[in-house]
Batch of 3 targets.
Target 1
Amino acid sequence: MSISSPQGGGSKSQPGAVRVTAGGPPKPPGNKPPTRPTGGGGGGGSNRRRPPVVVVKPQRNWTVVWVASLVGVIALGIVGYAVYNSHENGLSWEQRADKISGVVYYRKSKPAILTTAYRNHVEGAVKYETTPPAYGNHNPDWQRCMGDVYDAAIPNENAVHALEHGAVWITYDPTKINATQVAQMAKTYVNGNDFTLMSPYPGQPTAISLQGWGLQLQLTSPTDTRIAQFLQDVRQNATLEAGTPCSSGTFVTGTGSTPHNIDTQPSAAPSAPASTPAS
């Protein structure tokens, strides 16, 4: 219901009249509820804009990145080397030698050279299948091979017997390398190293050649890293008479092309019958 002050029977409200309506207390005339300002454009609110959001991109610490990358590379290298080393250690000396680039592996291509047919002791000159020889029948007396460096050619027949004991014979053509290189090779690979010997070999196919029993590596440079690898893998390993020394017994030290023979054998190592391999 509504209460109004009647005047003249009209229904028009007078100024200042208080109008009461059902459902709540009287509201003062002319008052409007406050409006909340709104942001942005349109809608009649405040036109203030929010400040732009600035995203600051974090700077990358390149030192940390570089160090972390380097550590990762080193770790991978260590792991890779360990795997490689483990694999290499699992190989036999023959497998390692066969992997040397350029090595001629007669033991595999001509296995008969490991039999007694190619290991007889003979007097006089022998015609060999390779130059320099790397296997074959040979003189009963071996060329001393306890780090000996010969300044002249030595007999093939005595040198091949040293190979049978497990020595590595290094030969060089003096027309293809100079005296300084020869001296450096002797110092690096031969002097003081048992089961090695070195001598000139004029006319060989390359400047340098390495022989073990049934293996040969021919090279052009005295600084080739394969020289050390061949010595490491072949020296004493390629022996057909394990335990036979280079430093004692019926060895010879003479040079020249004619085989040297010693008539007497020491009592500890008597001559073997012709039908059996001689030591």
Target 2
Amino acid sequence: MSFRRRLIVTTSTLTLGTLAFALTCVYWGVNRVQESILDRALLGSADEEARLESGMPEDRLTITDAAGPTANSAAPLPKYAIVFARDGNVHESTANARGGPGLSMLPLLSARRHALGQPFDVSYGKVKLRAVLVPVPQHVGWKLFLAVPRADVDRDDWLIGGSMLVAFVLSLFIAIAVIRWVMGRLTRGHLAIANTALRVAEGDLSARVGIQQGDAEIVSLSKNFDRMVERLQRIVEAQHHFVAHAAHEIRSPLTTIYGSLALALRQPRQADEYRRLIHDAVDSAKHLNRLAEDLLLLARVQAAEADDGTEPVLVADFVYDAVKSVQGTATQRGVQIHVREGTASVTGRPRDLERMVRNLVENAVRYSPRDDAVLVDASWVGREARITIEDHGPGVPDGARERIFQPFVRGDDAHARPEGGAGLGLAIAREIARHHGGNIWLDGATKGARFVIALPARPPPRSRECTRPDAVLIAQ
């Protein structure tokens, strides 16, 4: 059963159950009021009749010809009266209470066992009576039984009950119709979201809910759902793009390795030729190995839990490790690395943070002019630890500032495709930063390239002890 149908059934059941309970209470209340009016009239008439008889001798006690009580009827009700003597025998009765053909007095006679002054129901043939038993004053043990037909009360009860039943049936259809209409209006947004979710589950990532007006909660849910689908679509498209380029990148070195080895085995060659072919195969294998490592690192970072293996670490420590690992390449190119350390501290995985900075520093060193310098600055900005890596190379065109962070992106600019790399360095760096709650972007207000890393910072330590005694490798 659908959510809408369950909601309609539940709401209808509660509404109609409440209505039925209310009508039942009203019916019972009206019935009690009607019966109470009759009981008061009956008790008044019985007390009056008993009072009139109290002054007569026991042998002359007789029922008067006074009219019966008046309740809802316009005219007095016919009375059924019996005077019971002290021994329980009938001393006097009205003509209609003496029985007759097919009419037994036993129900009336059995009434003498009822409590005094407590109205009760009794059947006399086909007539239903409301009766009461009262004592006769000044005559100990004598009792007066007085009853009147309750047809008027029963007729009113039937009329009220029938009217309420008709009202309930009409309310049933009206309530269900109104509830269906209201629930349809209230749940159409949910139904649109459910249908869109079904289309997305079936592979249609272009499906959107698109609700722009209505209940604020539904509009917000619709927009959030559409944003989720848009992000999912970008992720799937990026995954397809990533797989296609990864396959291409893997195929290129494999083709080189296969070609070099096949060429080496095709015919006998000189040692130098074998050495050249093996060298080409080894270079391709190294490139393939770097690519595999980068892919595994990217997958591990994306799959790791946010707090998996994290620990407090000083920014200066992993910045130093990153710069030290690139120092050899910088020396070969005649590029100096200047580091300005701060006291910022973050929570994260030291090896991943070091790899993040190393990728950016290595990128800057590769594309800095010879005999130039790369500036690495670690500072505290508000509640963030900021690390900037700045070079004076050719820079990045405005149209490629975001694309360079995508895996395997090729472009005319050198930063988009580092030498000897697979185009994953910047993608890995940004993924690591985002997995630590931060981000990386390319600052446009500089000549060359200026990458900025922002990470949530821990409270700064009161003092900073030197943890790297061999820091002379880094130019300060």
Target 3
Amino acid sequence: MIRRLPLALGAIFGLCAGGSWLWQSNSEKSAAPGPATAPAAAAAIAVEVVRVEPEPLEVQVTATGSLLGRESVQIVSELSRRLVKVHAEEGTQVARGDLLFELDGADLVADLAKLDVRGRLARATLDRTERLSAEGLSNQQELDLARARVDEVEADRRALRVTLGKTQIRAPFAGTLGLRRASEGAWLTPSTLLATLQDTSSLKLDFTLPERYAAALGPGGAFRFRVEGRSESYTGRVTAVEPSVDPATRSLLVRGVVEGVPGLYPGSAASVEVPLRVDQALLVPAIAVVPGVEGRRVFVADAGRVRSVKVELGFRSADRVQVLSGLAPGDAVITSNLLRLREDAAVTLAAEAAIR
């Protein structure tokens, strides 16, 4: 009896261990994970867009410039001579061709008188030589020399008259004579400034604009400007544009003309406003343009997906900007949730507005 007890206890322990193993095995099977399920699709981002269409654009571009006289010149002498007479008072109106200053030309007059004597002698010699040649008493060489002397004296006379004419300094155009810088008796050289002459019947205005505005500039365009010390504004029109860009400043020099405005002086600084118009411009809200290392971009909604487009910008207004390249008419430019967007992200259109 006692010997059978260990066998019975062993059997009982074996059954318990087997049951525990079966329970553990079933628990592990029930706890094991099932087949992997597909992740949920990312939710589309709701965005607002605007459809870009070509439309007219007019912007005001500001610039600075300087007023110039219609014609302006510094009066100097071409000769190194003494000033003997001032014929026009400073600050007066003069006409084209008026005598302004006279230089000493007494020696030139004397030289001209000597040439007159030489000329009469050369002419008399030529006449005598022609008569002798006709009678066969003079050869052709002597006749040619006599004619050459006459021509030489005449050429010297013409040259001296040109020099003598330079002793009289005349107004090259009608205008106002500036302050006189030399007095009678002063020795003048070609570097001595006598006075300035300004034609202020109309004024020119030169100003510069960035080269990106070149396509919108042209002769005939109107502009407005102000000058220091005057509250009113004036109008002018563009007459010419420099055909090359300044490589140092990347700007264009523009010249305008101002008609019939009394009281303005050449040399005055001017603040200029130029209205520029583009007939067919693609405009987007400024908030839609995203700056980056590689340039500026906008996001376009295309068939429910995001497309990042690099753009080149032109004119700017208060809240919109012109796109020169990168977009086409009808593109839907995204204007909201820009920080959440990435290339090829799914989007839904929450609202669409016309850009005006």
